Amino acid sequence: MNAATCNEICIPARNYALAATLGSGQAFRWTPCDDAWEGVVGPRWVWLRQEPGRIRARTAVPVTDWRWLTHYLQTDAPYGAILRSFPRDAPMRASVAACRGLRLLRQDPWECLASFIASSTKQIVQIRQIVASLCARYGAPIPTPPGHQPAFAFPPPQRLAQTTEADLRRCQLGFRAPYLLAAARTVDNGALDLAALPALPLAEARARLLRLPGVGDKIADCVLLFACGFAGAFPVDVWVRRALARLYFRGRLPARARLARFIATHFGPQAGYAQQYLFVYMRQHRRPGSSRAGRPVQTR
DNA sequence: TACCAGGAGAGCG
DNA sequence: CGCTCTCATGGT
Asked: By three-state DSSP, how is residue A272 classified?
């Protein structure tokens, strides 16, 4: 690397919808700020702004090697090839058209796992609050620009392992508190090695995550897709369930096994990306003030 | 106010 | 399996 040390950089990024990506419910630490976004990646406070053909990034502390950020943003992912791998059916066309440039991030596995354990039966707004609360209470303070409010890293497993269920309940975790505590202890004592997951076959990585209490199919797939680089992982939540039902099955989902077979065969090797497009597409059509979805184009 | 939220686990037939 | 109930809490 011959890059100079500085606190600003422009990352080339074509077909990258920054706002859609940061706000699409895969990460919970980003807040829109004027025409930009502020958040935390690992131990660093980060400011990001979409510009034509690129993303401008600023940090509070000068940086020499920015690969941690390009890795997080996945700006080098083969966007065109990913889109071409999707099935050429009407629902996918409509989903892509509705959110061009939507990407998947590559998050830290622990932060991703902990955040999604906290997510069950919560709205995205609330998940953000819980994560913010965990960081403020148990995360290490990190440098921010002069005059900016304080920021905190996501607390590592060894830190959360030292808390109690009652502590965690104070962060609005409710019945998820014991799950998060158990997960923190399991990762802290080495019984689950998150760093080893990406090198495993998808099924094995998934099986290891499923051993954690509070981690079922959906949360395991979120971690595999958003943090471990398994582009074939396909989290099925209420929104994706709705999307699949309405767009592919005339409103009625088939039995589990048949649905699983459909997912495994229909969406191709980048099924996880397809899932994210369906998720965002379906949420765009929800009615404000109601959890019931509006009317996405009925196709097929 | 009533409903429901990017679920998971246990108990049941 | 597949269904139902419970869990805790706040947004809308």
From this structure: helix
What pTM value is reported for the model?
A: 0.96
Q: Which two tokens stand for residue A97?
A: 């058209």
Give tens-digit pLDDT for A8-63.
999 999 999 999 999 999 999 999 999 999 999 999 999 999 999 999 999 999 99
CA–C1' span, A10 to B8, in Å?
42
**A53, A57, A52: which is closest to A13 by C-alpha?**
A53
Residues in chain A: 300
Give dist(CA A101, CA A14) in Å, integer.
8
Name which of A51, A10, A45 is nearest A30 in CA terms.
Answer: A45
Nearest to residue A274, comparing CAs of A245, A237, A235, A238?
A235
Measured distance CA(A122)–CA(A293) in Å, rounded? 17
Residues sharing a CB contact under 8 Å with residue A32, sequence separation 6 or more, in sequence order: A19, A23
Which pairs with CB-CB distance under 8 Å and at least 24 residues apart come from A66-73?
Answer: A66/A3, A66/A9, A66/A11, A68/A41, A68/A42, A68/A44, A69/A9, A69/A11, A69/A41, A70/A11, A71/A106, A72/A41, A72/A42, A72/A105, A72/A106, A72/A107, A73/A11, A73/A13, A73/A16, A73/A21, A73/A103, A73/A105
Q: Taking the alpha carbons of A25, A27, A31, A32 in that order, is the dihedral positive or negative?
A: negative
**Rounded Cα gap, residues A126 and A124, in angstroms:** 5
Q: Which residues touch strand C (CB under 7 A)?
A: A 121-123, 125-126, 129, 169, 172, 174-175, 255-257, 288-289
User: Could you give phi then psi for residue A58, rounded to 5 degrees?
Assistant: -130, 150
